[in-house]
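quick one before i forget lol
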Amino acid sequence: MTGIRMTEDQYLAIIARRNAAPSIVEMRDNPQAKQPKQKYRNTKVEDKGVKFDSKAEHRRWVYLVDQQKKKAIKNLRRQVTYELIPKQARPSGGYERATNYIADMVYEDLEGNTIVEDVKGHATPEYRLKRKLMLWVHGIEVKEIRS
C-alpha cells in the first residue's frame, strides 16, 4: 500500500487548518461565524463598560446598586478576591500557587456585617470546596443567589 508523502511542514499546516477556530476579529466582524459555547450555558452581559459572567449576575448587581442608592446597604463591590491557601514552597523545589476565591459581590448591611454573595446556576465541586474554605479560613459564610 502506498501513501501520500509530505514534509513535516505540510503535515503541520494541514493539522493547523483542521484545528483552527475562528479568531476574535473574525467572529466580531462576521456575525455568522460560530461563537464558542459557554461552559455552563450562561450568556455574558456588558452594561456601561462593566462585564458580567451571566444575566443573573447582572440582574443581581442592578438590584444591589439600587439598594445602595436607597441606603439599605453600603460599600458595594464586585469581584473581590479572598486568599484561601497562600503560595507555598515545595520541598522538591518550585512553588504551588495560591488558591483564591473571587466573590461576585461584597457589601455591608446596615449593622456593618460583611455579606459575600455568589450568583450560581450550578454549584460545582470546586465552588463547594472554596465556599467551605471561606467559612473556615475567613469565618465568612457565602450567600448563594440561585439564578
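fyi The helical segments are 8-19, 24-29, 55-69, 125-138.
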